Amino acid sequence: MGMRPAARMPKLTRRSRILVGIALLIVGLLMVGPRLVDAYVDWLWFGEIGFRSVFSTVLVTRLVVFLVAGVFIGAVAFGGMALAYRSRPVFVPASGPNDPVARYRATVLSRLRLFAIGVPVFIGLLAGFVAQTYWVRVQLFLHGGSFGITDPEFGKDLGFYAFDLPFYRLVLGYLFVGVFLMLVGNLLGHYVFGGIRLSGRQGALSRAARMQLVSLVGILVLLKAVAYWFDRYELLSHTRAGKPFTGAGYTDINAVLPAKLILLAIAVICAVAVFSALVLRDLRIPAIGLVLLLLSSVIVGAGWPMLVEQFSVKPNAAQKERDYISRSITATRDAYGLTGDSVTYRDYSGNAPATAEQVAADRATTSNIRLLDPTIVGPAFTQFQQGKNFYSFPDQLSIDRYNGPDGKLRDFVVAARELNPDRLIDNQRDWINKHSVYTHGNGFIASPANTVRGIANDPNQNGGYPEFLASVVGANGAAVSPGPAPLDQPRVYFGPVIASAPSDYAIVGKNGADREYDYETNTETKNYTYGGTGGVDIGNWLARSVFAAKFAERNFLFSSVIGPNSKILFNRDPAHRVEAVAPWLTTDSTVYPAIVNKRMVWIVDGYTTLDNYPYSELTSLSSATADSNEVAVNRMLPDKQVSYIRNSVKATVDAYDGTVTLYEQDEHDPVLQAWMKVFPDTVKPKSAISKELAEHLRYPEDLFKVQRMLLAKYHVNDPVTFFSTSDFWDVPLDPNPTASSFQPPYYIVAKDLATGGDSSSFQLTTAMNRFRRDFLAAYISASSDPATYGKITVLTIPGQVNGPKLAFNAISTDTAVSQDLGVIGRDNQNRIRWGNLLTLPVGQGGLLYVAPVYASPGASDAASSYPRLIRVAMMYNDKVGYGPTVRDALNGIFGPGAGATATGPAPTDVPAGTPPPAAVPGAVQPPAAGPQPPPVAVQSPGVPLTLSPAKAAALQDVNAALDGMRAAQQSGNFAQYGAALQKLDDAMAKYRDAK
């Protein structure tokens, strides 16, 4: 029976074709146009900051990978269909008038070019888009070197696993995809064009179809054999359920590894069997070979290892896995920088008794006890240093160190006073005002972390607020910089708060009169014009048009604020700027400001990572770095799995002009060396780090959190003990009642553990608990001092020493503490907040727990509505000390006079009325001493509150008078306020006279 001719497809008119073409063009522009605009804007931006070579290298690499993968996949897809078409039978009988294959064949033949070219092009484009995302693997393969370390199983340099194996896997994967697509295309082509017919009892297969399909299946089987070969190497990074370590274990080495070689041999034999069909013309042999390969993969590849695991390994797992656990311990320590040259272990009792003299010998620690919690005092910074509604500080401030007036090292709570676009109100939100008037912040604010301005014996008294050192633009437009270091340019154009709002760009540059808000005097507002090198020129119409499209804002075209000298500042987040110029880095979740060489810079820590380091434990960055601080502000690293990490780069971003500078931090990191070959001259050598910058580099917090989590396991040397987990540690939970995650590590200035001397150093510290217990197991300190940077000291603590949770419970439930805070916070009039619980080694073997206590009275006046330091609580061994100052708390533990001896001249002895060193334009200072009730309304620290009936009744009158005074303050009625003060004086007189 002849083939029925297919019905003709309706043809479009010329006008319809034109309309369809225009519609497709518009759709194409809508899809491609934004990408072209973004690419051009990126080209301008990278050029402006001096990293255009990064942009061009990444772009060229992506394009080359896209073309190679796309052309290859498209070509093999086309080849499979072309072979089927060229070898199609001359005559194909139809099975009937309704033969569906005949209709498909007619449709394909009527649109042959569309199917023959369109389908491969689409598949090639899709494959190219996916492949170009792997540009990192390609560049590391081309530029990777050696580690100088070989794996313990195959003896290959670790550079093979880091740089070569991922690329080989990528190529093999695309070969698989390409051959598979060719097979599918060839199969469909033969089916449509008649090379394969399914009609009848047995169907029919043309010789050409058999030859082509058999060849492609054989190639796939050979590729599978190659995959089995590479699978051997990936076993060294393998994780098995229930196995307490990463890497090949007993089962993997003695069962899975031989199984891979056996399966490789079977795959080669099966490939030969498949290719035999080219000669024997019998498809049963290839079919038997494929079934054999499938059964072998199940029996040999899965069944045999399972039997070995169940009946050989599990009954005696500790001994069987002993050698492989040792491999994992060594590799994990190497991969995470926890080797013997970086980590020093020392025995430490943790509960040694101490005298006042012994504590005094640790003045490097006790005189620097940090009282300011950077997660709590932010509102005080905002209240007293904000100045204008549109300025702001981060929710959590930073800790850094500077030399104090006495030349000694001190830690400071620091913050940049940034512009916050979200705080603009009313006409400040107008496009011109938002983007050309309110463009920058003003000031670097620092507060000594071990002192406050005056002592607050009661939450209604003034005092207990930070003492501010504000480097700002002064009343004459010049920088006022009282400390902690001289600053020439306090204006802040780049920062995380500025960049937190969408469309955070600023239009700057000379265009007529000064336009940018800068500061105010008593009589007028002073404006400013940006004079930095940063910014992309937008003085020409091409640039204005491009940025109008970029930000979907027509004002770029029509606004008169843009002139020939105008520039645009955008991408103003310091971490994002670093990630853009170094796309191979993972940045730390926190950045912090510092004054370096009289410039304000943001310091960003950058990490190089791998996820296939042999035998090293695979770690989730998001899980390892989560703590109560990160959870509180939803600031965590991406969920990235790593088995190798180095803090290889320190980066700075100038807060005024946005200049990004990358410095080599780890000179021995092979991953960094590879990237420095990919992007030459983008990373400066470590020797280029100035002395001033080195003094402000911190040991990075996220790296430390990853390391402490791993040290919880990998401090164990004996593999049998490791397998039992009996000597593991735990990261303690934050004992603070408001916390919901792990306790964060804390930056402190304390006695230098890295050198063992009596001098103080800047450290990052954490306590560690025993495994699933609340007793202390270790204390870890990482040095940030330039001379000992990166040295980690671990004090291992035996016995049952109270951990953070037990210590906090003992402090908070102490009779004197609970009664005093109960009086302060009675009837919820004052909110009590516990600060960070610090763990400090003091007294030749003891541990001092310190927790500042803050109170926020419920009064309406703005000054008293922000947390202030009200008490300091401590515990040494099982004894609690408590009082308004560090001295008082130390006296409560070690006896009268111990506090003065241990701390020296008390920073908190500054009279409450003493003005701070500098005023901030537009800001207010913490209030000086004013009308205050005597401290008798609050019990003395450490003494139970026991009052006679007369005293108790008089105290109630005092409290009632205090309530009346607060109500008068809220009303703003000065007459009523004066009467309330008189009542308070009368009540206090009665209290003093009561017996």
TrEMBL record:
<feature type="transmembrane region" description="Helical">
    <location>
        <begin position="171"/>
        <end position="193"/>
    </location>
</feature>
<dbReference type="InterPro" id="IPR005372">
    <property type="entry name" value="UPF0182"/>
</dbReference>
<feature type="transmembrane region" description="Helical">
    <location>
        <begin position="261"/>
        <end position="280"/>
    </location>
</feature>
<feature type="compositionally biased region" description="Low complexity">
    <location>
        <begin position="902"/>
        <end position="912"/>
    </location>
</feature>
<protein>
    <recommendedName>
        <fullName>UPF0182 protein C1S78_020000</fullName>
    </recommendedName>
</protein>
<keyword id="KW-0812">Transmembrane</keyword>
<feature type="transmembrane region" description="Helical">
    <location>
        <begin position="112"/>
        <end position="135"/>
    </location>
</feature>
<dbReference type="GO" id="GO:0005886">
    <property type="term" value="C:plasma membrane"/>
</dbReference>
<keyword id="KW-1003">Cell membrane</keyword>
<feature type="transmembrane region" description="Helical">
    <location>
        <begin position="63"/>
        <end position="85"/>
    </location>
</feature>
<feature type="transmembrane region" description="Helical">
    <location>
        <begin position="213"/>
        <end position="230"/>
    </location>
</feature>
<dbReference type="GO" id="GO:0005576">
    <property type="term" value="C:extracellular region"/>
</dbReference>
<dbReference type="Pfam" id="PF03699">
    <property type="entry name" value="UPF0182"/>
</dbReference>
<comment type="similarity">
    <text>Belongs to the UPF0182 family.</text>
</comment>
<keyword id="KW-0472">Membrane</keyword>
<keyword id="KW-1133">Transmembrane helix</keyword>
<feature type="transmembrane region" description="Helical">
    <location>
        <begin position="287"/>
        <end position="307"/>
    </location>
</feature>
<feature type="region of interest" description="Disordered">
    <location>
        <begin position="902"/>
        <end position="942"/>
    </location>
</feature>
